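Now for today's protein:

——
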Amino acid sequence: MQAAIALTELWSPRVVAEVDDAYIKVAKVHGSLASHSHENEDELFLVLKGHLRIEMENGSVELNEGDMFVVPKGVRHNPVAVNECLLMLIERKSTLHTGDVVTDKTRSLAEQLRPV
């Protein structure tokens, strides 16, 4: 959690560990990211602090501190945090930050691999 607290940029996940073909990332978020999907990868969200809503075409999921949710591959989703929220993400190394959408919040893998 300390790595997530240390982040200064919003919606800019940082890789803190690797497990086989997956990255463990932390992020500080506030506001809305972008509606996107990951065609071939699931995405795990774990709320470390705060509250996160994941909006999907068939409804939303509300996550509080300690809650976890896996967005299945191919499902269009948009993470939203009304207040600042700290997250841990587990994603395959092939997962693009904002999937099939590019916005000013999209971060390259090189940016995500920078030290916290």
In short: The chain is about 10% helix and 50% strand. The longest helix spans residues 2-6. The beta strands are 14-19, 22-32, 43-49, 51-56, 59-64, 68-71, 77-92.
